Amino acid sequence: MRIFITGGNGFLGRHLSEALRAAGHAVTAPSSSECDLTREGCFAPWRGVAFDRIWHLAAWTQAGDFCLKHPGEQWIKNQQMNTQVLAWWSMEQPQAKLISIGTSCAYAPELPLREEHYLDGQPIQSLFTYAMTKRMMRVGLSSLEKQFGVRHLTLVPSTLYGPGYHTDGRQLHFIFDLIRKILRGKTYGEPVVLWGDGYQRRELIHVDDFVRTAVWLADRVDNDLVNIGCGYEHTIREFAGLICAHVGFAPENVAYDTSKYVGAKSKCLEITKLKTLCPDFSPTPLERGLPAVIDWMREHHLGKA
Fold this sequence. Notes:
Blueprint: E1 2-6, H1 11-22, E2 26-28, E3 53-56, H2 66-69, H3 71-92, E4 97-101, H4 128-148, E5 151-157, E6 159-161, H5 174-188, E7 192-195, E8 201-202, E9 204-206, H6 207-218, E10 224-228, E11 234-235, H7 236-247, E12 254-257, H8 272-277, H9 286-300
Parallel strand pairs: 1-2, 1-3, 3-4, 4-5, 5-10, 6-9, 7-12
Antiparallel strand pairs: 8-11
């Protein structure tokens, strides 16, 4: 197949591009400078090229408290990006199936994180703007399907982890931030201070598991939304304990700052639909997947004292 990927140079994008190319597909994955999705005409270089699949991974966001500091910009830029993709798809690439990446933060915290609730209730305020742009993408997909009969799929991941994470200085997702802080505590004797009380809970899925499952679903499921996660979560203290055990750092030397931003207290996707669609789904156990990421972080993200 001929496949176009937005956000192909991101963490997920690089893993997805590699997997698709290894499977023999022709992949076009331009950088943001080659295809600025906030500008009209950004797809002009591919006019006349027919794609079989479009994977829309690009989003203007970062981890940590980024969403708190940039809500206005997030709304404008993500809406511009989504609208450009939706218009190009429906008007110039209607033969292509569009697979879009949703977000778990779109779910209202008081409701089960189950697919039928994706548009129900209100997301938490700290992530509200970003979450709503993802909801609007879902509405756009459904609306264009109704009018033009195009095919689509939305995949909602839990937090992805794996080797090859960003090294460009942006804020790190929580698991990479934990690893880096504990590695620096072990290597340089720096204080290790984690945000919150450590009892907030998070779910992880290895990026290779997500890519493999996403590609499988893209071949088989149309016009739907599917969560992809492990179905269980751990406390930040449990994650820290696993990291400390691997690097040889005493967990009692980890401090917690309850004044810092922590986001949702719990975030675990309901994956009944996934297990029904993909009964052989078997995610990598954290105890096996995490050590390789720690070792990769030691080489690429440790920095100097």
